[in-house]
Here is the input.
Amino acid sequence: MTTPGRSPRLTAPSGTRLAVLIAPDKFKGSLAAADVARALARGIEQVRPDLPLVQMPVADGGEGTVEAALAAGFSRVEVEVEGPTGGPLLAPYARRGRDAVVELAKAGGLDRLPDGLRAPTRASTFGVGQLLRHALEAGVERVVLGLGGSASTDGGAGMVQALGARLLDEHGCELGRGGGELARLAELDLREFVRTDHVEVVVASDVDHPLLGERGAAAVFGPQKGADAAQVRALDRALGVWATHVTRSTGVPWADEPGAGAAGGTGFAALALLGAEVRPGIDLVLDLVGFHEALLDAQLVITGEGSLDGQSLSGKAPVGVARAAGRHGAPVVVVAGRSHLTPAQAGDTGFAEVYALSEVEPDPARSMAMAASLLEQAGRRVAQAWLAPAPDR
Ligand SMILES: O=C(O)[C@H](O)CO
Here is the structure.
């Protein structure tokens, strides 16, 4: 346990009861955010069955963004789309009134690859474009587009094709799918492109990387999609060709904008061609799920994520939760599968205490397999440290 400060036993303001807000992200590869919240709540209830607990699963823009919206009262809409490598799949998005939440990972995420087979140069964002098109045709006026966890590095070209653009080679033939194809792009025809001028598109991005170069989409995130060094170089060059054509059409150079490199460069296409604004995914999700309102009644906030380390904190959901809760003054404890944070990093981030499941089960495979019961145990420990009734009460 990393302990930046002492865990004070909390007391409720007079006339009220202590309330706890449980707002974790997923434990990637192990549990969805809602399951993490449920397991923590079970543990707390074993120690303090009397306390009001609010479970509010969150996400960073990547996987889990639609689930967070559904948990907050949006309705689920399912659409048959083209998966990342072309096979059909049923993908959901979330809708409430004139608002939609569309998550790229649902249609083109790494975990939607058939048999998990990576296809770094062929994978496409066409499916997320189909989801967007469905939402636009249903008349939505505001779209939150969650970017992250993608299988592709196509600069959002597939998404743009699904919205009616034509990407042509030097012979006037339509390009195939995937970032590798973009090297052959000779003409971008936007005449049939679905207009989104009347729609506010906000990108919820899990990263603030630019499109190109050593901090760009191919170099930083290509390897996790299966790209070797030569493929990373080829994809970066191909994205450069894509950027040149898009910039020629729009007149604005978006490639260096923070977030342009999100989801294999889909951030770039969203900025340039959908007129999107990019915001940190977690901040948008917190707005969407009503986190700030829920905070008003909370004396303790518990957040969580599968893995935390000092180098990769930026954009992580628990950091956004800590930032928002800090403004309100509620202490935040974080439960992680594994944490490499030093006490100083945890304290600077705003975590009053860090609980790592690896302290109880050091073997990563076993810890992932037993995550639900380890989280329940962590919930009990948090309750004992922070929420136990004072002896004189
Ligand atoms: O999808 C990706 O490329 C990464 O999650 C960064 O957005």
